[in-house]
Write a structure and sequence with these properties.
This protein has about 290 residues and is of the alpha+beta class. Helix content is about 55%, strand content about 20%. It has 7 helices and 8 strands; from the N terminus they run βββββββααααβααα. The strands form 3 sheets. A 3-stranded antiparallel sheet has the order 3-2-5. Strands 6-7-8 form a 3-stranded antiparallel sheet. The protein has a two-stranded antiparallel ribbon with strand order 1-4. The longest helix is centred in the middle third of the chain and has 70 residues. The chain is rod-shaped and about 160 Å long. The termini are far apart.
Length: about 290
């Protein structure tokens, strides 16, 4: 109704392009305008000044021959002061931007290997933005921001990368486990060595105590029983120890000790062997 009366309303963040008899005349700002159509004046179209977003999926390959799909998000808007260029110079803005994105991505990503492409997403986005800014400014558009949203390798490549990562982590875990077992073995060996050392000290002290006790017993027996010799006292002590040992063996139901030869007379043989060994040792030292 308003247009029939020659009145036109332009919405906020939008401009209208006015033509007279098919020729550009003016850019109408937001608000109400008089467009006398009966004088050949008409509105050729509207141009939004809002920020728009275009998502582009581009398939390319990396330097190490891995095919990837790069997802780029381009945010752009038309400039009010260049509304005429934005309206007349491009017939399809989105396809034009998409073509530039394809060109830059397919020229940049093949120079990188797969890992570098993930690490240098910002460099790829900067290259796309710089190229778009130079190209689209001539058509009255401003590139607000360019983002590389995602880099998607082939599904088989993803599985291979995950398997490599899992294998590396398992190798680290195996090394850590081996190191822990090594530490346990070392600590166990140190504990066994310390235990044997202390056991040896205990045995040495026990034997020293036995020797001291035997010496005191021999001296006391010789003093209290005239006419006895050290040999007699030692024979008696060995016989006493022999019967005490038999008593302990008989009292245990799980004993597996065997004495060869067996018999009371063998004690005298053992005592003789002890004495002979001591005498030979003394002669060798002298």
């Amino acid at each position: 109704m308003g247009l029939a009366l020659g009145c036109l309303q332009v919405e906020q963040s939008t401009v209208a392009v006015k033509e007279v008899f098919g020729r550009y005349d003016d850019v109408l700002e937001p608000g109400c305008h008089c467009v006398p159509w009966f004088f050949g004046t008409q509105v050729a179209g509207y141009l939004s000044l809002r920020v728009q977003q275009l998502d582009v999926r581009c398939e390319t390959k990396t330097k190490d021959n891995v095919f990837v799909t790069v997802v780029a998000s381009v945010q752009y808007r038309a400039l009010a002061e260049k509304a005429v260029d934005a309206f007349y110079k491009l017939s399809n803005t989105r396809e034009q931007i998409q073509a530039y994105v394809f060109d830059v991505i397919r020229a940049t990503v093949p120079k990188m290997d797969l890992d570098s492409s993930f690490e240098q997403k910002n460099e790829i986005a900067r290259a796309v933005e710089e190229e778009l800014e130079k190209a689209m400014s001539a058509y009255g558009y401003e590139i607000v921001q360019t983002l590389i949203v995602d880099i998607e390798p082939d599904e088989r490549v993803k599985r291979a990368m995950n398997e490599i990562n899992a294998a590396a982590r398992m190798r680290v875990a195996a090394n850590e486990k081996a190191e822990a077992e090594k530490i346990l073995q070392i600590k166990k060996a140190e504990g066994d060595a310390e235990s044997k050392y202390l056991a040896g000290l205990g045995v040495a002290r026990q034997r020293q105590a036995i020797v001291d006790g035997l010496r005191d017993s021999v001296l006391a027996f010789s003093e209290n029983v005239p006419g006895t010799t050290s040999k007699d006292v030692m024979d008696m002590v060995l016989v006493t120890q022999y019967f005490d040992t038999l008593k302990e063996i008989g009292a245990s139901s799980k004993s597996n000790s065997v004495f060869v030869p067996h018999g009371p007379g063998a004690v005298r043989d053992i005592a003789s062997q002890f004495r002979d060994g001591l005498l030979q040792g003394n002669m060798a030292q002298s």
